[in-house]
Every structure is written in C-alpha cells, then in structure tokens.
Amino acid sequence: MNYVPDFSIVTDNWIVLLRGLWVTIQIWIPSIVIGLAGGLLLAQARLARSGWIRGIGLVYVELFRDTPVLIQLIWFYFAFPILVGVQLSPYAAALLGLTLNTSAYASEIFRGGIKSIHRGQMEAALAIGMTRAQAMRRVILPQVIKRMLPAFTNRVIEVAKMSSLASVISVHELMYQGRLLSSTYYRPFEILTAVAFIYFVLIYPGTFLAGRLEKHLARSN
Amino acid sequence: MDYSWDFGPVLERFDMLALGMLNTVKIAAVSIVLGVLVGLVLATTQSGALYAEVFRGGIVSIERGQWEGGRALGMTHFALMRRVVLPQAISRMVPPFIERSFELLKTTALASTLAYADLLYQAMLVNAETFRPLEVYTTIALMYLVLLVTASQLARLAEARLTAYQ
Does the pLDDT at position B48 exceed 80? Predict the structure, then answer.
C-alpha cells in the first residue's frame, strides 16, 4: 500500500468539523428532550381507557418503528411540506423527524415501565386521596425512570447516531461537513476517520456515564 | 390544502420500486448471513459485533452448574458446548437475534446513500422522473411498513416456535 496518511488537513480544518459537531448537538439534544417528553404523553395515550385513543397511539408508534429512520427524515423534508404547504428548512425537518421518532420509541419504554409497576402502588396512591396525575408524578414515574434507565440511555445513544442521517437531507452537521471536506480535498480516509473518531468521543462518555448512573441508582435496590 | 394527489405516475413505475424492494431484501439477507458468520468468528463490522453480543449473551446466560455438572461427568469443553450448553443457549438467543435482524432490515435503507439500488434509491430515481415526492415517498413508506410488519409477524411466529419448550 503506497498511501501515506496525512492528517494535517484534519488539523487545518478542525473548525469546519467543530461547526458540524455543534449542529449535530443542536439536533441531538432537543430531539431527545422533546422526544422523551412527547413519549411520556404518548404513553398515557397508549394506556388510555378509550380503545380509539389507544388505537391511534398504536398506529403512530408502529409507523415510526416499522419504517427506516432515513425514510422518515426524507419524508418530512420532501413530502411533508407539500402536504402542509410550508417548506421546512433541512434542520427543522430533521428535528421534527427525530423528535417524533424518539417520542414513539420513548412511549414504548414508558409504557413498559409503567405496566411493570405493581398495580397496588397506584391503588394505594388513589386510596390516600392522590389524583391519578399526582400518583403518576410522585409514585409511579420515579420508579419507572429508575427501572427503564438502560432503555432511555440506549435511546440517547441511538439518536446521536441517527443524527448523522440528517446529512442526507443536507443539514450541515458533522457527517455533512466530513463529506464536504473529503470531496474538497480528495482525502476521504483521514477526514472520515477523524469524523468517526469524533462521533466515538461524543458517544462513548455517554455510554460510560450511563453505566455509572445505573450502578449508582441500583444501590438502593 | 389544494394539492391534488396523483399516484398514477408512481404506480406506472412500480416495477422500479419492486426491484428496489427485492434488492433491499437481498442485501438484508446477505448482511444477516454474513453478520452471523462474522459474529461467530470475529466481532468486526457492525452486524457482526451485534450478533457476537447476542451469541455471547446466550452462552453466558447458561448457569455455571451446567458446566460444573458436565465437567464432573468428565466431558471435554468442546463436548460440553456441543451437547449441553449450545442447545439451551440457542433457544435463549432467538429473541434478541430476531430483534437485531429486524433492525438490520431497517438499516438497509442506508445502502441507498452508497448508490446501491435498494428501495430508497429506486424511489429517488422515480422521484427524479415523476417530480412527485409526496406520492413517491409515501408509497415507499407504505412498502417499508408492509415489509417490516410482515417481517415482525414472521419473527413472532418463529420465536414462538423456536422457544416453545421453555
């Protein structure tokens, strides 16, 4: 192999990659935060007494779970604007797609967690005069979050990886900048290796901290 | 909304989309088979790594008592694996294996970015010819939906059959 790697173009253009990283974080964190909140609301719908509301929730969740994420992002960027008559920016489309996707997966996590809590807890809370909402907030959800923490941290990591798909709909995040640089300088090896390394550095501490948090919370078991 | 839906041009080119669907299933099948083989031998490539995790998890979940009992009877490590551990472990590996394979099927859509003629790639070609992104992408979203819901039902069936004895 006569190829001599030259990582100086990475160090010379670090600011381009940094800008991409910043956009990646701008997609990643809001999607997670809003997605988890939305997931909680959707889980309530999935556990509703009315069969109609449960059915709508089921269809929503299956739509997002049984289609590839790339299709969802492309649909929200190219097809959805035609439906509503408003052109979304690539960032808005990616944010919308990832948020709704996260809310679908998060609702399943919440639903599983809520069902795993013993019915007696809710009955006892209602018996001492709490409303359902109070019981949820003070008794059920804290336990659910503790139990489902591995699944939630998994979601956070998955969304970080899915954010790279936004490059396909031309959001200027890390992967997009990486491809831009590698086609500008014709040195895909150095640039894309650097991009992969940055994703690893971004995601691995999350994995590590998640493990620590789980162990910390498990102490009370 | 005054957009008039027209699936005509998309359905005219349905043969292109059907080819894309076929290629999607092909690449998913090859990825699963290779991933299983690679996962058994090394944990390189993403699907290989994921399957290696599944195999390791299944084998590790067998209680130590089984190993110790086998050793007490004088079985070699290889004989233990073949006759005692693996038959039980494989049954436990089936659900996560099916989950991973399902995700792999979804990930095949990414192959379109490397110009492999999977369903998404063909959809982009049809879109370039018909200029109707709403109908095209809605159609392939429905096709993926059908494909994946079918796969998940088959998976549930397979899982019920393969883990029946537990």
Answer: no
Helix axes B46-60, B14-41, angle to 10 degrees: 50
> Which residue of A70, A79, A85 is in closest CB contact with B120?
A70
Query: What is the C-alpha separation between B70 and B117, in angstroms, rounded?
Result: 51
Q: What is the DSSP letter of A219?
A: T
The DSSP result for A79-120, as a single string, is: IHHHHHS-PPPHHHHHHHHHHHHHHHHHHHHHHHHHHHS-HH
Q: Give the count of Cβ contacts less than 8 A between chain A and B.
A: 59
Cα of A45 vs its chain's centroid, Å: 20
A-chain CB neighbours of B138 within 8 Å are 75, 79
pTM for this one?
Answer: 0.81
Chain-chain contact of B141 with A75 (C-beta, under 8 angstroms): yes
CB of A75 less than 8 A from some CB of B = yes
Residue B109 with chain A: CB contacts under 8 Å? 68-71
SS3 letters for B43-96? CCCHHHHHHHHHHHHHHHCCCHHHHHHHHHCCCCHHHHHHHHHHHHHHHHHHHH
Can you give the pLDDT at residue A180?
Answer: 92
pLDDT tens digits, one per residue of B70-116: 999 998 988 888 888 888 888 888 888 888 888 888 888 787 777 78
3-state DSSP call for residue A4?
Answer: coil
**Contact indicator for A60, A104 with CB cutoff of 8 Å:** yes
CB atoms within 10 A of CB B92: 18
Cβ contact, residue pair A67, B3, below 8 Å: no
ipTM of the complex: 0.71
Which tens digits make up the pLDDT trace of A142-176? 989 888 888 888 899 999 999 999 999 999 999 99
